[in-house]
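On to my pick:
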Amino acid sequence: MPRIVPRIAWVEDEDADGELAALYAKLREGLPGVPAILRTMSVRPDLLAAMTQAMSLHFTDGALSRAHHEMIASHVSALNRCHY
């Protein structure tokens, strides 16, 4: 059976302007670039902004440290055979 690869359009860095350019700049802080999983939301900057805010809440220290959040996320991704 042939492998089906979904194609999702996204906005490249050089084409981003306004709110999206600001979001991309914030996402690049401390990273080598904007992760592809987040680029998939670039055609909806409002959705990308909401997801970014939710991620920042998820990965801040609270009952669990960021390291624990990362370990859980990595383990669940491995269980689901997801490279993210």
Residues 13-79 form one domain. The chain has one domain: 13-79. The chain has a mean pLDDT of 86. The chain is about 50% helix and 0% strand.
